[in-house]
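Next comes this protein:
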Amino acid sequence: MILIMVLWLVLGLMIYSVDPILVKDIIVPGLYLPFWLIFFPAGWLTLALLFGNTKRAFIITVGLIAIMILRIYDLGNVLNIILVAGITIAIDRSQFN
C-alpha cells in the first residue's frame, strides 16, 4: 500500500514539476518512457489491490497504456479505443473462463 502511494506521488510530481520535453525522447523518440515506467507499476499494483487478481490487473493496465500511447501518436479515436478495449476484454475473458 505504501509502495502504491509512493508511485502515485512520484507520478504526480513528475506530471506537475517536470517539463514534458525533457522526458519525451528518452530511448524511444516521442514515447515519454519515464512516465510509462512509473505509471505501469502504479496502475498495476492499484488495480491488483482493487481486483484482488494480479493477472487481470496486468491485462487491464496494458490495455490502458495501449490506449494512452495511441493518443500520444494521434491514433486515439473512438474506433481504436473500442478495439483495444475489446481485445482487452477478450483476453481477460479467455484467461478467466
Summary: The chain has a mean pLDDT of 90. Helices lie at 2-17, 20-24, 33-51, 54-72, 78-96.
